[in-house]
Amino acid sequence: MTKNSKTLSSGLEDYIETIYIAQLKNLPLKGADLARQLCVSRASVSEALAKLVAKKLITYNSYETISLTQLGIEFAQNVYNKHHTLKMFFEQVLFIAPDEAGENACKIEHIISQNVLNRMTEFTEFCRQNEKFLTEFKKEITRK
Amino acid sequence: MTKNSKTLSSGLEDYIETIYIAQLKNLPLKGADLARQLCVSRASVSEALAKLVAKKLITYNSYETISLTQLGIEFAQNVYNKHHTLKMFFEQVLFIAPDEAGENACKIEHIISQNVLNRMTEFTEFCRQNEKFLTEFKKEITRK
DNA sequence: ACAAAGTGTTAGGTTTGCCTTACATTAATA
DNA sequence: TATTAATGTAAGGCAAACCTAACACTTTGT
């Protein structure tokens, strides 16, 4: 049974997303950095990177900076967009504090359907064009 | 290291939620029914029920109907409320079809924070009191 | 009441993702 | 440059959740 190459486990999505963000910021990223950021052991990182190499999502040789392949970038952008959509929705529509919005986004990004996500994007945008509604909602919740 | 008795794995939450729903409907539920509903083997159900008994969330003897303890009911209501909040939000605010709303709720209910959930409830309620906004949003999305 | 159907458990496996320990390799710095 | 620090990997384990196969027990239907 060959692996479905179209999907990644939540864990691998986290790895690839972290690598992507580092790459966006032009920060060289090594395995040990990943271990620190994701709070896992260097050994676990080593295993995970091997899987990502096998799936041709990253290129990596020991002691070098990890980098994403074109395919890896596509996967990463997909996850990153989900994260961003959720975070913006939580912050701008539901008025959740950035930290908590981010924490929820981190978990939900791996499981929510694309269709719901698209609708969230539309909703956030619609609210932006109709500011008064959210202003009223904010008044409502802060009054409590 | 003793287990944290305040939280359950996603899987066990699914078991207990299913048991709760059957109990609400007054439908007697056996292990084999659970296996069918959750699409797992009877053996897996047997293991899971043993864990729930150990945690004092259900009472159960072979070949009898499974039932929730008071503690189990509290856990189940908590999950069930989350599910309901999410499903209503997806359906009524984002206009997601019931099936898809339910599928997303099933997954997200296990990981979303209570605070975000509360805000969703407030938002859904607020929208209900301001129907025009959602009517406009619906127009917007169906126009595409 | 007894065979057939349904239900439950046990034993033994698999997979995934993590761990620690120990060791090897590379990089940094005194 | 010679240590020391940092990094990476391999081996061996563990725990959670699932599985199948085999067997035991209970319920149902004729």
Q: What does it look like?
A:
2 copies of one chain form a homodimer. Chain A is an all-alpha fold. Chain A has 2 domains: 3-75, Winged helix-like DNA-binding domain superfamily/Winged helix DNA-binding domain (Arc Repressor Mutant, subunit A), CATH 1.10.10; 79-143, Orthogonal Bundle (Diphtheria Toxin Repressor, domain 2), CATH 1.10.60.10. Chain A is 69% helix and 3% strand. Chain A has 7 helices and 2 strands; from the N terminus they run αααββαααα. Chain A has helices spanning 10-24, 31-38, 42-54, 70-93, 98-108, 114-128, 131-143, and strands at 58-59, 67-68. A two-stranded antiparallel ribbon of chain A has the order 1-2. The longest helix of chain A is centred in the middle third of the chain and has 24 residues, at 70-93. The termini of chain A are far apart. At the A-B interface, helix 5, helix 6 and helix 7 of A face helix 5, helix 6 and helix 7 of B. The structure holds a DNA duplex (30 and 30 nucleotides).
